[in-house]
Amino acid sequence: MPVRGLTILVAADDGDRLHAALSFAAAGAARGDRVRLHLHELAVGLLRPPIRAPADADRARAGIPMLAELLEEVLALGVAVSVCQSGLALYEIDLATLDHRIEAQGPVGLLAAAGDDRLMVF
């Protein structure tokens, strides 16, 4: 029986929620799961430099990866990361300024790609 993939949707402009979503994406990828992570609309703004979350200083003191580090780890693990075209427009972000491994995708494309994946929403 084929293993279902994992699609993670981040819908909030909240760096700590994105950190949690990235943590689950990394865990799934480390298990060998096919994982995709999508930042919807307001969440896209979290990718503007500097990439950080409110609790990053506490995480650094505890030896936990900060938001930017965790994003890099997830991309290195092969997680398919996409951002909403509306979010790019909302924040006037040019996709070319983001990491080349991040793609633009709308809701229709995300749902079509997700198929019967498990879905987590942050």
TrEMBL record:
Gene3D superfamilies reported for this sequence: DsrEFH-like
InterPro entries linked: DsrEFH-like
Protein name: Peroxiredoxin
Organism classification: Bacteria, Pseudomonadati, Pseudomonadota, Alphaproteobacteria, Sphingomonadales
